[in-house]
Amino acid sequence: MPMSYLKHKGMNYLHQCKPEPVIHCNLKPKNVLLDNVGQLKIGGFGLTKLSKVSADKFKLAHPKNDILNLSIYSAPEICRNEIFDGSVDTYSFGVILYEMIEGAQPFHNKAREDAVKLICLEGKRPHLKYKSKSYPVELKE
C-alpha cells in the first residue's frame, strides 16, 4: 500500500475518533514513522494543546506568538491563530505529499521564515514542477 494512502488513512481515523476528534496540528515528516513490520505510525502528539470552540472547531490553547517559529508544514490558520478544524492536518499532509513528489519543501529556495510568511501571511501556494521522473501521470491532471 502506498505510504501516502496510509498517512491519509491514519489522519482520517484520528479525525473521526469519538467522543472527540483528534487533531494533530504538528504533522510533519519526522512525526510519520514506520515500525519494524512496515506499519505506519503517527507520533508527535502532546505538543499541541487545543481549546474547543464548537463541536468540531478549535483554537490553540497556547499559540506561538512568533510566526517565525512555526513549521513550513503548519496550516495558515495555525500560523494566524485562527479557529480551525481537522483540515489543518490535511493541509500539512498536502505539504508532506508535495515534498515526497518534488523531493524538496515548498519554497525551498527561500529561508524558512520567508517561506512561512509567503504561505501564512501572503497566501502563496507552490506549484508542482514534476521534477521527479517517478511521479504518477495522474497527478498532472
Automatic annotation (TrEMBL):
Residues 1-141 form the Protein kinase domain. PROSITE patterns: PROTEIN_KINASE_DOM. Coiled coil: none annotated. One of its GO terms (molecular function) is protein serine/threonine kinase activity. InterPro entries: Kinase-like_dom_sf, Prot_kinase_dom, Ser/Thr_Kinases-Pseudokinases. Pfam families: Pkinase (PF00069). It comes from the Eukaryota. This is Protein kinase domain-containing protein. It comes from Vanilla planifolia.
